[in-house]
Amino acid sequence: MRLQTLTSLAAATLLAACAHRPLPPEASQAPRVEPTAAQLSTAARVGLPATELADLLNKPLYKMQPAEVGRFLAWQQLDEPDLRRRIAKLARKNIGQPYELYLLGEFPYETHDPQPMFRLDKSDCVVFAEHTYAMALSASWEEFFWVLQRIRYNEGVIGAATRNHYTEADWNIANRWLVTDVTRTLGAPVQAYKQRIDRRAFLNKQFKIERDIPVQEWDDAYIAKQDVAAIEAQLQDGDFVNVISRRGNDAWASHVGLIVTGEDGSRRILHSAEPVVREETVQGFIARMAERDARQAGQNKAQFAGLKFLRLNDAPQVPPMAPQPRPARPAALAG
After folding, report:
1. Contact between residue 265 and residue 318 where contact means Cβ atoms under 8 Å apart
2. What is the torsion angle, in degrees rounded to the nearest 10, for the CA atoms of residue 71, residue 75, residue 81 and residue 82?
3. Which residues contact 258 (CB under 8 A, 6 or more apart)?
4. Looking at the predicted structure, is the pLDDT value of residue 198 above 50?
5. What fold does the segment set 8-19+36-314 form as a domain?
6. In DSSP terms, which residues pair with 335 in a beta bridge?
């Protein structure tokens, strides 16, 4: 995930700690895909040449240029009108994308965080989910970039201070137009946890930004890892997953991903983690985390506890951006 943390519970709550993952087995070279007659027809409707469509079908998203992404998204809207399936297709088209933690910032709009406002060639777990959702909701590069900022920032107001830093209390809440927390409604027992969120201290420590923001006490819940199997069949393509870790009395979302359905009907997690974006079954992910925790026993490291699930809303409507305020001038020049 994107940001470095403070200490203790602050470290527990930020979008900040996508866990390391082992290198997946090497995939065999996939045969070249040729567009179908129906795909060529939809390409013609958006002015995409047949030869370019053929090339884009065989090129991962993370190897495309922005203009190519824009043309591909316009075609994809027609080729796959179902939003859930479109999210799954776009997510899978980024399998193999290299992972890098703390990837995005606000540069060049701001200089508090020197990272750029978008990347196509790499992702971390949050960047991967945000880009996938934004692409699935867009039919051009310009629309994608606009929707991306609406997802990343509170009311779309760009800035380090308005970025949705905290998974549960910021990202999940600010994007309720897109996803709805269904953790408590799936029928499994839930585990309650609390967080103490000090945004003022975080912004000051991380970016030297002063904001008078009161401390927030946050209550939330997750499904313990051993109870997830009982509700897996209810999960749908495009659902948002929060991976919950615990250390002592602290619990937090340390990683995120997207749900996709396998050809065999299995529910799978598609996510960005070291070293690359990959897809694995939910139960395979849970088993792998258990093996990791067993290796790290006695090292005072966070342990995988369970999962939160947020349902992709039916036909989400992207809200308008709030007005972007003019940046403040130095106090000596104000007036």
Report:
1. no
2. -60
3. 87, 88, 91, 128, 129, 132, 238, 239, 240, 241, 269, 270, 271
4. yes
5. putative xylanase like fold (2.30.260)
6. none
